[in-house]
Amino acid sequence: MLVRLVCFILLVSCAPSDRLQRTYAPTTGVWQVVSRDTEVFRDGRDHVLARAIILEGGGEAGYYLSLSFLHGKGNNPKVVSVAMNGVPMPYVMDDRLSTYCIDHCHKTEVGQIQLTKTQFRTAGNEGMTLVVDGLRRDYLAVVPARLFYTALGAAHLLAPVSPPPTD
Question: Is residue 121 helix, strand or coil?
């Protein structure tokens, strides 16, 4: 009985939170807001996760969308290009992982798109639909507005962005 109680307490304390934290790195002098992973595409073998990131330091701010492409079988995913409304986005591949395990193990490519402040704020209102052209397959990733909206809120940069519609 005691073991079950301890396990329950550990599981509850490790449960993910929807709240974002704004953290400061004293060694770099940068404030950062990183959202939780949000699934923006899934089919029988692959899925795509997204995170909104805001970095602030030295009077400047950087706005990013981090993407993780997870492939369940065979070869590593290889992203060739990312576009929004037919306009190419500045996607940069950061890493390839041969084993990334969440619900099961995947081969993964992780990359980022640097966004302007206007693009990030617009995404906070409207969300973002990305057409991802891959070497082995394509994806249609729908990134919800709440991902950007909550990051802007945690960074105290909400005004004048309006709340996204509830799902």
Answer: helix
pLDDT digits (tens, 9 = 90+) for 143-162: 999 999 999 988 888 776 56
- For 56, the token pair is 């602030």
Task: State the burial class of residue 112 (Cβ atoms within 10 Å of its Cβ: 0-12, 13-18, 19+).
Answer: middle
With 60 as the cut, is the pLDDT of residue 79 above it? yes
- Mean of per-residue pLDDT scores for the chain: 81
The CATH fold assigned to 23-154 is Immunoglobulin-like (2.60.40)
Q: Which distant-in-sequence residues (6+ apart) come within 8 Å of 52 by Cβ?
A: 33, 34, 35, 64, 65, 66, 120, 147, 148, 150, 151
Q: At what angle do helices 145-154 and 117-126 cross, to 10 degrees?
A: 120
Secondary structure letter of residue 136 according to DSSP: S
**Domain spans, the chain:** 23-154
List, in sequence order, every residue forming a beta bridge with 38; answer none if it has no partner.
50
